[in-house]
């Protein structure tokens, strides 16, 4: 069965028609995966565990939603860009037929993505594929204690903290002054947000470590974001009790289909996330005249 997760607003009718036609031509079914945020109905609903492959039709956010849905079931996800290619989309909408043919013939490689297994106060919360963010909700600062394997690293007062996978290190973490991790790096990166005084540099940890973030009780509130989304019950405005988050790297949390396309770094350069010094660009331009 061919499952689909869709963008809530983009024009995707042609892409869906091509995917549906391919599935029917190959004797399969086409259905929509039950996943959080799938309010736009495009096909009959189906459990992700019944799908052989999940198409994520939209952009990188749609791919993340599909990966979170398919990851626990061990299913693969093919990212289809309805717009410009992103970091996680492998093919454009007009390439669906050829991409599905390659999938059916086995001409693809699994790109195994690590995640962040997160517990809140000792209870499993969820798995993040990009990042976990603890951020202040009101005007006041959020006070955090960050431990590594039970050993104190730092106490911070500021806007919060970002914990990212290698994949997620090119997003919020990079924008906040954190390092870019190689896609095959074994670990995570912790980046404080707008720390008020002190010295707490970004910290890179291996997957063998356990990260603990203790959030102090406060009066301004805070929220927990997982891959840019706020899970139910994870945003408190006003008076807030203290809580604890424990984070471990989960290897092979999700599978993305790879067709030997561009590398992550090449994609970041194409999108302008990584850009050369303007001085060098000017020098190259002069050399061409």
Describe this structure in words.
- By secondary structure, the protein is of the alpha/beta class.
- It folds into two domains: 124 residues, Rossmann fold (3-Layer(aba) Sandwich), CATH 3.40.50.10330; 139 residues, Tumour Suppressor Smad4 (Sandwich).
- It is 19% helix and 38% strand.
- It has six helices and 18 strands.
- Strands 1, 2, 3, 4, 5, 6, 7, 8, 10, 11, 15 and 18 form a twelve-stranded mixed β-sheet that branches. A six-stranded antiparallel β-sheet has the order 14-13-12-9-16-17, with no helix packed on it.
- Strand 7 and strand 8 form a beta hairpin.
- The protein is globular.
- The mean pLDDT is 91.
- Belongs to the NAD kinase family.
- Involved in the regulation of the intracellular balance of NAD and NADP, and is a key enzyme in the biosynthesis of NADP. Catalyzes specifically the phosphorylation on 2'-hydroxyl of the adenosine moiety of NAD to yield NADP.
């Amino acid at each position: 069965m061919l499952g689909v997760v869709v963008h809530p607003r983009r024009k995707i009718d042609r892409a869906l028609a091509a995917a549906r036609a391919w599935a029917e031509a190959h004797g399969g079914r086409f259905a929509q995966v039950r996943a959080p945020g799938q309010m736009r109905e495009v096909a009959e609903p189906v459990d992700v565990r019944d799908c052989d492959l999940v198409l994520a039709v939209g952009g990188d956010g749609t791919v993340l939603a599909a990966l979170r849905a398919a990851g626990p079931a061990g299913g693969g996800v093919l990212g289809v860009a309805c717009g410009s290619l992103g970091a996680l989309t492998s093919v454009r909408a007009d390439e669906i037929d050829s991409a599905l043919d390659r999938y059916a013939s086995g001409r693809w490689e699994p790109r195994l993505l690590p995640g962040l297994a997160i517990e809140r106060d000792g209870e499993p919360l969820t798995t993040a594929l990009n990042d976990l963010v603890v951020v202040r909700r009101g005007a006041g600062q959020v006070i955090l204690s960050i431990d590594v394997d039970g050993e104190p690293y730092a106490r911070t007062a500021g806007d919060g903290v970002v914990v990212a996978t290698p994949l997620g290190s090119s997003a919020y973490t990079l924008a906040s002054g954190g390092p870019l991790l190689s896609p095959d790096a074994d670990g995570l990166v912790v980046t404080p947000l707008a720390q008020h005084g002190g010295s707490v540099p970004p910290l890179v940890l291996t997957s063998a470590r356990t990260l603990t973030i203790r959030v102090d009780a406060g009066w301004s509130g805070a929220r927990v974001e997982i891959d840019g989304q706020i899970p139910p019950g994870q945003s408190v405005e006003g008076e807030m009790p203290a809580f604890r988050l424990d984070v471990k790297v989960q290897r092979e949390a999700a599978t993305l289909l790879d067709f030997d396309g561009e590398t992550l770094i090449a994609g970041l350069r194409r999108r302008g996330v990584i850009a050369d010094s303007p001085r060098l660009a000017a020098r190259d331009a002069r050399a061409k005249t």
